[in-house]
What we know:
Blueprint (H helix, E strand, L loop, with lengths): L2 E5 L5 E5 L12 E2 L2 E6 L5 H7 E3 L3 E3 L8 E4 L2 E4 L1 H17 L13 H20 L18
Antiparallel strand pairs: 1-2, 1-4, 3-4, 5-6, 7-8
Helix pairs in contact: 2-3
Amino acid sequence: MKKFAMIDNSGNIVSIISPSMDDYYTDGTLYAQQVAREIPLDSNDVSYINDKYWREGFYDKPIKPSRHYIWLDYQWAFDSVGFWSDIRVERNLKLTGSDWTQMADAQLTNAKKSEWLAYRQQLRDIPSVYAEETNIDNMVYPTRPEA
């Protein structure tokens, strides 16, 4: 029995297959825009997919800097779309959680309403304030006013 890693044109291991017949796949052959590369039968499939890449041989990927990076052109590249999507979800939850403070019938003084208004604006400004940020741990959300 043989086992193959299916490699895309960027060196990414897309899947691991174990064909029922040893001669069904051939090492180095192109199948549906992926090249089959034989790997050890006892290899861990998940580890191969997550930790290795192909470039005229299998190599270990460097440690992923954070979950907001994708493997591209044989290196980790920052995924700004995913990063900002996560930031906006958190920010929008905070905005939604404070919508009530801006309602006409909110039981808040004008001073408190102004505090909440400023807080909400700071939340909206996060994408411009942190435009160059690539580490979610460096994001500092404004302090929520007391009701």
